């Protein structure tokens, strides 16, 4: 079915919400390398994950074969409160750019958590409740994941402790307030509530934190507390699985519009949004049905894909999580206090990493002030104030649209607008006042991180 | 057409967006009393409004006869970026309350301005551009109107000065940042940029402002600046006209669902949302087609309908605007620094006032802590963090739903969820920490306001 006039926004109906998640691994010709249990130095079995993760989520983490996984009814019930999210045609942005390209975006910010993170938060809180858990711990960077998980835990009646990257905690005071409104307990990380946190603070009392450090603290808290497990908002295979709902809805909506994207663009921190958005399009690519160009946009201040190494590394700074093969800057890499807190992670989803390594997607790194320039251009034309993370994808889309202007090509561009910037006004103020700076790590800085990569006999010498 | 299963959210399609606003006055059996020009003491002619308002808007203000007014194409183009807004069924809230009632809400917060205010901001900015104006001035309370107008002015290329009620300016630092991101110039009111502001500050240097005062400043600035006019986000007839799109969409969506509300509830500050939401349902009531119960919910701290007088009064504190007959606490009434900045206005839309006076709607006044209790209950169940203003309507709906629980009646309740609370985290923090207080003005305080009402020979002695 094709629609004659493309509306500004298309919402699928409630009964068009996908009933199954799509597991991209089932169609990958080569699988990501196995994760390594740091205690044994050998590939981890699903049981190795049980002390940290809920059983059902551990199974999803390790399941590379089941192509489609049913979404439980209780999860669908909560999805229906805010989904489907719209596919929007950026008519005004196209006009402002004077491009012949057609620009679409999948807008995931239309819920109180303000981002796509709620899609996986609901799933993870649900499985925790099903397992009879009373408490969860997690980390949050920009605060989007922590907000989403607070909402989901409140809904399912689970207690939640959130370790929030200190720089975000300071830059986004109201993020704490919203998490607390939903009942979450929020601590600035590094904190003095864990061994990992105390050790970091002892060495560097002014450490402003990183996602890697916050993960260490949350995992430590989970494994040392009865009836408590850990959940993570990005990087993991299970998260990409849950986020596939973004891409599945987007593809269905584009079909209704009679469109198929030539280019698909997502911001990339841990890979949750990118992996979810591209999933069904990547399936077409892997199965030879179509060949869209896929672009990951990451911050130049934390360039894991464009300047990182494809190597085994810990997922956290404290080196207590399993090791995964991924594009990484080294788990000891200290990202600058770049405002896009959600993209300040040293590694990248192993699935995204493998696909990037095998040439299925491109990546670019962009500087912060240019990202905000694109954000404001977008806001003024499309009336949505984007999250700085999302604005990386906007900049990517703007650059592709301007290339089309040069060549005259009428390409169809789809990007993921992951969230809103209501809690990022400190950063917007810095941009408005001209005090925002850019930061690009030197090769020497990166070398330090690479030198500290773990040695794993038989896997990484 | 009726749908078997009622979805959680129903979006009309783009081509179902109303193409005309509905002018409620055309169906009122008795018209609101004429506004009085303070310079002459006589009813104002449309020309009397030209120094302050754009001509087209002045005409809309005075037009009580044209039932439907075409929405210009350029306005519809911008509406389409964020409209239609959804009708939502509050399944989870119903479950939490254990009520047999069906609760629906029209959610107007799904745009960056965060509220319904954008509907009229777009219209007013458009007509200003059509008239060739370069600059607009306005006031803002909670900051929602200022944000919406900044967006609309940015879109149409108009310069904007915003006088923001000082207490909101202080409580909501990020509101300023978002208005500035869209190019608005924001000043705390009372300010030293106008005669009115300077006079108030001289008498009371710590005056925390009011909508009435901010209006005076913005009007003074407009009439003393070349190529500049004034726009207002509530109270006015023209605003209710533009906001009728809320009710028109809501009614159409309810029809599709096979529903008609028994009770319609809106928060009431100046009346913009309430007037817009109820417009087509009030038409049914005025023309005898249906008889829904309509409830305005106002803050006990600023109770213009429930404790005010139906009298001629100035729309502003500085007494430079025309006088309108409305429910008022007196333009000298100083509302407490209640957090619901958007409801801190001494008067009420003359249309709403007349309808209330003639018995077409009910009103209740509620206390702030109870409003936030309802807000958090709603947030936890429906995953949307409401603006404090909107939460007044939530509380009204909760109370009606609990009455249904007692009586067993399966009433259909519709309320207006006007906006989101992302910029109200200071208030939420106060509520979370138990430091929020309530305030109810004494009869003596109110008497002072009533005693200062203007005397207008032949109209109000």
Fold and architecture overview:
Two copies of one chain form a homodimer. Chain A has helices spanning 55-62, 73-82, 91-97, 118-130, 144-156, 166-171, 173-181, 195-203, 211-223, 237-256, 272-286, 304-307, 350-357, 368-382, 388-407, 425-432, 443-451, and strands spanning 9-10, 20-22, 36-37, 42-43, 68-70, 87-89, 102-107, 135-140, 159-165, 185-189, 228-230, 263-267, 293-299, 309-314, 323-328, 362-366, 412-417. Chain A is an alpha/beta fold. Chain A folds into two domains: 3-18 and 83-114 and 243-451, 3-Layer(aba) Sandwich (Rossmann fold), CATH 3.40.50; 21-67 and 117-230, Rossmann fold (3-Layer(aba) Sandwich). The first copy, chain A, has a seven-stranded mixed β-sheet, with helices on both faces. In chain A, strands 10-9-8-11 form a four-stranded parallel β-sheet, sandwiched between helices. In chain A, β3 and β4 form a beta hairpin. In chain A, α4 (118-130) packs parallel to α5 (144-156). The mean pLDDT of chain A is 94. Chains A and B meet through α2, α5, α7, α14 and α16 of A and α3, α6, α8, α15 and α17 of B.
